[in-house]
Amino acid sequence: MSNQELQETLLQRARAFDLQALAEIYDLFSPVLYRYAVRLLNDAEVAEECVTETFSRFLRALKSNNGPRKYLSAYLYRVAHNWITDYYRSAHSATTSLEELEDETIPDHQEAGPLQMVMEKLAGERVRAAILSLTPDQRQVIVLKYYEGMTNEEIAAAVDKQVGAVKALQQRALAALRRALQVKGDSTGVMDELQIVETG
Amino acid sequence: MNYKLLKQVEHEPLQRTIQRAPSDLDDQSLNRQLEVLRKTPPRDAAAAMRGRNAFLAEAAAIRDELEYKRRRGFIAWLSRSIKQRINLGRNKNKPNASPGPLPAPARLIYAPLIPVVMTALVSAAVIATAQSSLPHQPLYSIKLWSEDVQLLLTANPTHRLDLLITFANRRTAELEALRQRQELPSSQFMQRFRDQVDEALRLVMGQANPDAGDDGANVAVLKQLRATAAAPVLVVAPTRGTPNATATPAPTAVSVAAPGGTPTALPLNSQSPSHGTAVLAPYRAEMQTSDAAVEWPTPLPTPTRSVPVIGGPIDAQPTAAPAEKTQGAVPMADSPSGTGISPTPAVVDTVHIAPVPPLVPTPTPVLVPPTPTPVVIQPTATPVLVPPTPTPMVPTLPPLLPTAMNPKPPVAPLEPILPPVLPVDTPAAPVPPVVPTILVPAPILSMGTPEAMPTPDGSAQLTVSPTPGVTSGHDQQRGLPGDQ
Fold first, then answer.
1. Contacts of residue A184 in chain B, CB cutoff 8 Å?
2. Which of B34, B58, B59 is opposite residue A146, by nearest beta carbon?
């Protein structure tokens, strides 16, 4: 059974509020959604809240006979993205204090120094802002492609689009990210790349 | 590691490399920057388990709620719709609130019933409205149709009899309403009235129990209804020019011809709605085509206490009653005085006039028109008097003529006496000639109760006997033919 067929079967059982099917859906998609949320939110608790609210909206959609018909993962990603967008619009403050940075418990960064932590934090915020500036479809393609490691065919099946449309979305998303991250014409980036080539 | 890029840039200048493949270099830089977000903190297992439990608990609650609503079905959906519509008016923040789809089983069951229920409600409203309609009105046919349906669905003879009596009473009430509106019923109306009473009579006879008093009462009531249905009805035309002229004595019972050839005395209401010219209109269905009403000269009280007799001589008797206005009960039909018919046992004013001048045999007013056949009523050998029964079902004929027992109108001191002669069943009967006027001093005499008398020639006549106590011996000796 392919991933798509599995999703359709689970959806069919979930529409009848089969608790076993709903549990399987949660176990299958909540880790992916959590990673997606925590990358964009940079907060584990808020990311968990995002996952909880995403699955709650999914249940309400099933109750009102709405919700996804075929592509469950794309639906869940879209709901989580809308929640994150609303979160940034309403509650989240763009400014981050040093105390907040010190409180963050990212294991890989614990051994780094304060300057490194600040630099990585700023770099992460910059990338998040660039990703959040994309359209929902572009962001979804970028996340699935670069962070979940899906192929174009798998992305096309997840977002219910043609493979060509996925490639076009990807190209536009990358162009937008370049503009947002000022990669093109950035000599520093080119030099870094050259350094990587030389050391490799 | 991009070995291809490494090999390409190995022997060329940096600027050329940048110009040749800028996108590749951008993608490399972009990938490196996106790698910042690749690492994610591990998920807290406890938080994940709490989230999972909350998700499954919410799913179970929704499942139970849906199951409960599915059981309640259409009613729950309807109440939910009403509530949400009310909330829509109050809460602008929930514009998308919807009652949800009608449950599938409820859709299958209730959807076809909606037009049926609506049609039934509208029909019930129309039928209920039609119950107060009168003949000549648009909804009257619906009223009759509903009665037919009721009779059709009633097989029990007792219940059917009750229905027929109820319907006959309705016809009587409609007759009263028509009389007040001065309209004439149609022949179909009267035929239906007769048919209903006839069927009721057949039912009563079929269930007749000699020991049961109710049956006898029912028979009497039905006979009276039957007589009403078959009888001509006096219609009082509105007075023109002579209001409150006199207290017009009138017979309290009219002898009419029943369809079976039996004259029937019908009681008349003692209360007169108007004063003036009394018009006898043929009220039988067979006589409906003629609108010509026979105008009567206004009968007046005479010192001889002569009362107008329809179609026969006056049974004039003197009176010795004191001149006072008293109230007394009208004798019943089967009273010892034998005074004939009394319409109702109600107390009726009786006017007793003070000393009457010596009763000189006054020339009896000629009441019978000088026609070869002054017979008003169909000649029969056995006139039938139907006594009214003091039951709620007794139909009361409309007050047709002002009676002498009603002392309401003021009595003029002197009034001319005109002979009230009425040919009822002879449409071509000549108008009775006006008899020479007789001046009568006030006050007037008390009037008795009329009764039907057979004439020597076989025609029924209506006479009015004096007040009880002064009844002539001739009246006392005579029995009531209707009792036989």
1. 22, 26
2. B34
B11 close to A (CB below 8 A): no
- Taking an 8 Å cut-off on Cβ atoms, the answer to whether B30 and A181 are in contact is yes
Chain A hits for B63, CB-CB cut-off 8 Å, are 17, 19
> What's A1-93's CATH class?
mainly alpha
Tell me the domain boundaries of chain A.
Answer: 1-93, 113-200
What pLDDT, on the 0 to 100 scale, is given for residue A164? 92
Give the number of residues written for chain A. Answer: 200
Asked whether the predicted pLDDT for residue B269 surpasses 80, the reply is no
State the residue range of the domain holding B402: 305-478
Q: What is the ipTM of this complex?
A: 0.74
Give pLDDT, residue B419: 47
| Cross-chain residue pair B47–A183, CB shorter than 8 Å | no
Q: Which residues of B touch A186 (CB under 8 A)?
A: 29
pLDDT digits (tens, 9 = 90+) for B39-91: 778 888 998 999 999 999 999 999 888 887 776 666 767 777 777 777 655 55
- Euclidean distance between the first and the last CA atom of chain A, given in angstroms as a whole number: 41
**C-alpha span between A93 and A82 (Å, rounded):** 17
Distances (CA, A) of B71 to A97, B74, B154, B381: 56, 9, 39, 78
List the single residue in A with minimal CA-CA distance to B51: A52
In a domain, B468, yes or no: yes
Give the number of domains in chain B: 1
Please say whether the structural domain A113-200 has been given the CATH code 1.10.10.10: yes
- Using the predicted structure, report yes or no on whether residue A2 has a pLDDT greater than 90: no
Identify the CA nearest to B43 among candidates A33, A110, A99: A33
